[in-house]
Design a protein that fits this description.
5-stranded antiparallel sheet; globular; 25 strands
Length: about 475
């Protein structure tokens, strides 16, 4: 893991029985459809597509790299022997430690790397990479779904990695980069436009999945995702400098491009099947990147992470990572009694957040809901926050909804927050400022009734353990 090399990660996944190779899938819909079937399996595997019609053997597409606990564990340097519960428990506290340690893992600049196996300075055509048409209703081929878009803060120099959608344009001469307002990459680009009239951008299009993890989650502003990835892996990331922009690119990236964005250079972009499960945004102008450099390894691998109706390519990763980050955020904010957090895949890892607490005082459960609804680690496109008692497993929606239906009085325990941080990809968005609203459901037992609330009608833990010991086949 010290080299953050996708090919070494693929060898580990293969040795653990977590990799499936598929030959002959067409980039028009077949790669997307096969990936969707895989996401819905009980145990998804990473899918590596080769022998793609119209492309040389060895020019490959990888999907499903983070679609289960074992695969995500490999990406996070935690090994492949993880169940869902194991991974959640192991990650408790780690995002805070990674963030605190990030400054110690400044990337190491090297003079060369595998990404420089092929260097093109002219006649660049992105059609040389088999960017799929992921969904029937997409407006074009998307080369950037599992990508890491690299930008630099104009004033501080801090590097950001963001996973933004990129549509191939002009017959392969370039690609649009569609960045949601408020994202760190968008802030960087606006500042460069104001100060310089153009903005430098590099994009890694294939890489170790840890870069998809850090690019696809809310690492706090001011901390570089390259440093954060180094903290996760326990060693600095080796980077090379792009010839055109000077931006750092992971030395083991499979494919990378770089160039400059200009405020007056846009292309119509979309629609695209988004993580909400809908084709969102219609066709709108998006910044157009005409690459000045193209870099690739021999037999390059495009990392695909197409969203869609959950479960999708990265919904599991986002649920786990967001849950861990929200847990740390609540604890760091001083909220006592945090027993568990889960950002459900059904909401794309963002829109449904459950917080379980050990109630300590009147108003505690409502405080937990407000904090979870608006903390930066959870605020974007949040729509439903439910607080439950610690006896409820937040990962199980059946338990959560049981609590909501028996411990929540809608007249007093439901509140609405309005004009909160929404998104263009919200299927309810109709134009104008990108607000949404969110509901806070207090499904905890009333604090004043903790002592006399009716007990739960179920066997005690001791009785369940005794029954499981006597009849172990019932506990399988």
């Amino acid at each position: 893991m010290s080299r953050y090399d996708l090919r070494e990660w693929l060898d580990e996944a293969d040795a653990a029985g977590l990799l499936t190779r598929l030959a002959g899938a067409d980039r028009d819909l077949e790669i997307g459809a096969a990936s969707q079937l895989n996401y819905r399996r009980a145990t998804p595997r990473a899918l590596l597509f080769d022998d793609i019609p119209g492309y040389p053997r060895g020019t490959r597409v990888l999907t499903s790299s983070l679609s289960g606990p074992a695969l995500l564990g490999l990406a996070l340097n935690l090994g492949a022997d993880n169940s869902d519960a194991d991974l959640v428990n192991t990650l408790r506290g780690r995002p805070s430690r990674w963030l605190a340690a990030a400054a110690e893992f400044t990337p190491t600049e090297v003079g060369a790397g595998p990404v420089f196996d092929t260097v093109l300075r002219e006649d660049i055509n992105l059609e040389r990479i088999p960017a799929p048409l992921w969904h029937e209703g997409d407006g074009g081929r998307y080369i950037g779904t599992g990508c890491a878009v690299i930008t630099r803060d104009h004033d501080t120099g801090v590097i950001n990695l963001g996973a933004y959608r990129m549509q191939v344009q002009d017959g392969g001469a370039g690609a649009t980069i569609n960045i949601e307002q408020g994202k760190h990459g968008a802030q960087h680009i606006r500042r460069w436009f104001e100060r310089q009239g153009r903005a430098p951008v590099a994009v890694s299009l294939g890489h170790h999945p840890v870069f998809l993890v850090v690019a696809g989650t809310e690492v706090p502003l001011g901390t570089s995702e390259l440093n954060y990835a180094g903290a996760i892996g326990g060693a600095p990331v080796e980077v090379v400098r792009g010839e055109a922009t000077g931006l750092p690119i992971p030395a083991t990236s499979e494919i990378a491009i770089e160039g400059w964005l200009y405020p007056d250079q846009t292309r119509p972009e979309g629609p695209f099947g988004e993580w909400t499960g809908y084709y969102s945004g219609g066709v709108t102008p998006a910044p157009f990147l005409r690459p000045e450099r193209f870099y690739a390894r021999r037999d390059p691998i495009l990392l695909g992470a197409p969203p869609g109706k959950p479960p999708h390519d990265y919904s599991y990763m986002r649920s786990v990572m967001k849950s861990a980050m929200i847990t740390d955020a609540l604890v760091d904010a001083g909220l006592p009694g945090v027993a568990g957090v889960w950002a459900h895949e059904a909401g794309g890892g963002r829109s449904i957040v459950i917080v379980a607490i050990e109630q300590a005082y009147a108003g505690h459960s409502r405080q937990a809901g407000y904090l979870a609804a608006q903390h930066p680690s959870a605020a974007y496109m949040n729509r439903i926050v439910i607080t439950v008692d610690a006896d409820i497993n937040p990962r199980r929606l059946d338990e959560v909804m049981w609590a909501a239906s028996t411990r929540c009085d809608p007249g007093t325990d439901i509140e609405i927050m309005r004009r909160t941080w929404g998104s263009r990809v919200d299927p309810l968005y109709t134009g104008g400022p990108r607000y949404n609203s969110r509901v806070l459901i207090d499904a905890c037992r009333p604090y004043e009734r903790l002592d006399d609330f009716p007990p739960v009608a179920e066997a005690s833990p001791q009785s369940l353990r005794a029954a499981a010991q006597r009849w172990p086949q019932l506990d399988a």
